[in-house]
Fold:
Amino acid sequence: MRKIDLTSFNVATSVTARNINRRIVLDLIRTRQPLSRADLARLSGLQRSTISVITDQLVEEKWVTEGAFGHLPRGRKPRFLHLNVDRTGIVGINIRPTETTVALADLNARFTSQVSFPTAADPNDFIVNLTEHVVAFINSHPHIFFEGIGVSVPGRVDLKSKRLVFAANLGWTDVDFKTPLENATNLPVEIENAANACALAEIWFERRGEGIRNLVAVTISEGIGTGIIANGQLMRGANGVAGEFGHVSIVENGELCKCGNRGCWEVYASNSAAIKQYVRATSGTRGNKQNGSSADGSQSPTFEDILHLAEQGDTKAGEVLDKMAFHLGVGLAMLTTGIAPQTIVLIGEVTLAWRRVFPIIARVVAERSPSTLTVTRIVPAEAAEQPRLRGSVALILQKHFGAPAFA
Structure:
């Protein structure tokens, strides 16, 4: 139960009730279409007259379309309602240290077009480049009415200013994406940490089934991020930067992290950590045909190279993945013990080696989680679903389909 904040609250009005009812009806149509008006009245508990007023308004605003008539043995034939996915689009942006992707999605988070480009090292150069790409992308789809732009970033975002305040793997601090994008496109822009966005996507699109209200999304890439859903709500902390478990030390006085701390979880369990370990393990032998490097050993392997080598039977690559899985298990045990979510979703390229890494992760979590009262499922996200991009779309969807923020 949420306590009412008596220092900052909004009283309920008739407008409040209409707004809530509208969002409930719109989200029912989104998730359970096609539905008739009678279906909506039954599912929502609202009067049929109220449903008629709301749906007529949604049809007039082109959020919803009327489809085929249903068949009944007698009485008026019901007409089925659908979300108008052909009219409305959302721009989703996923920023990673090496590459940024801009995509067009419909209201069901189905991607119809996307483009990728290198992420510039300088944040000012990147903002100029990003803005140009987004404007060109929008202009190339003149038939679409865009509802907004969602941006997932590999760092933490201040809750009030919406500025990127901490991104160790980008090397950026205090960066404003929101203002330049809004000025260039005249569209609302929502910025969120990638792991938080992925966690929201899991709830919005119910990838693990209905009824999950306690979930952790763990993004594993150049670093490690965690997005926490507690009792159906995203945990943000006092200023919006909660959830930085990737920068919690798991090894006292361990290796130096880009954040300035030592022994951080991501120093041992991220893609970057695996690459570093593999380079160390093959020092002096790199440059052979098996390791994916250039002949003179000057080119570091990618994480995808390591996955491929391990699959081919490369011993050192396999050992690196096994160590990565062990350290992932150490951090995940911290989450299962401290938060006890129903589900932990792992997002990243390492899930392509799930048959190898999951038994190690499960063993370590079982050994290090003392409580047997709560059993947490650990599952991989499907890379093909592009969870980071889906998360950026969820940032915009929640503005129209989510419950309004009141006292």
